[in-house]
Request: fold
Amino acid sequence: MNRMILPMIDRLRRVTLLRYLLASVGALAVDMGSFLALLALGTIPVAASAVGYSLGIVAHWLLSSRAVFTDAVAAERGARNRQKALFVGSALVGLGLTTLIVAAGTMAGVDSRLAKIAAIGASFTATWLLRKRVVFQ
Reply:
């Protein structure tokens, strides 16, 4: 039984999208935890969403560069700084989407938490594509 399970687990570890999904879950925990804490403190939803997402960006870079795209992280300092800048750029696209969706949802009378959930899907898709095809090509 272990002879079948261990190779399967090893193959799953090699699937970049799966590792990215797990890194995203970690970053999302930072993002949503911060967002909900800021809402509880009375912060306006759009600001809480932006701050939470920004903290999630930092967590995502750490997880992505160390556990997801390890074979594509630039070794040379200048190239790595360029990669970090591209990563932040992709995150800003996600932040923009998140902020717009939460703002639009809130203005339309949708609970800000539900709007944030919709924003997560849009942001995940956009940042995955940018990071896979541009940042860590």
